[in-house]
Amino acid sequence: MNSSFVSVRVNSTEPFVRFYEALLDFYVERELQPGNGIGIVFMNNADNFTLEFVAHPEHPAAGNERGAVSLMFMNNDLEKKKKILEDHNVEYVEDRLPNGMRFLRFQDPGNLDIVLYE
């Protein structure tokens, strides 16, 4: 297997699957249950960006200081995404750089910063 992906340690995969499916158009590529309470979910989006969520009872998720890591996703319709975030009661901050680039910043269930930009 020759692929690159971001791996995120979580306490439970379910809230992350719901969040990334509903808000960021990811889909479950595959799920693994190797035993001993370990759960692994690989999720992809249309740009073939892969996220791996790993729940391991002996290695719980570490805290994520806000801003320590951000996942950045290009998006061509921030207004549509704002509506989706609002429909799911997700708080976000909208920002704009002097060059006109727009951002929506919010957090996933594990406090990982997500940034959508256009």
List the helices and strands and how they pair.
Layout: E1 6-10, H1 14-24, E2 27-35, E3 38-44, E4 50-55, E5 70-74, H2 78-87, E6 93-96, E7 102-107, E8 113-117
Parallel strand pairs: 1-4, 5-8
Antiparallel strand pairs: 2-3, 3-4, 6-7, 7-8
Order of helices and strands, N to C? EHEEEEHEEE
> Which strand order spans the largest sheet, edge to edge or round the barrel?
1-4-3-2
Low-confidence stretches: none
CATH superfamily: 2,3-Dihydroxybiphenyl 1,2-Dioxygenase, domain 1
CATH architecture: Roll
Judged by helices, strands and strand pairing, the structural class is alpha/beta
Number of strands: 8
Number of domains: 1
State the share of residues found in helices, binned by percent: 10-25%
Q: Calculate the terminal CA-CA distance, rounded to whole Å.
A: 32 Å
What's the helix count? Answer: 2
Radius of gyration, in Å, reads 15 Å
Shape: elongated
β-strand percent reads: 35-45%
Describe this structure in words.
The chain is an alpha/beta fold and 118 residues long. The chain has a single domain, classed as 2,3-Dihydroxybiphenyl 1,2-Dioxygenase, domain 1 (Roll), CATH 3.10.180. The chain contains 2 helices and 8 strands, in the order βαββββαβββ. Strands 1-4-3-2 form a 4-stranded mixed sheet. A hairpin with a 5-residue loop joins strand 7 and strand 8. The longest helix is centred in the first third of the chain and has 11 residues, at 14-24. It is elongated, with a radius of gyration of 15 Å.
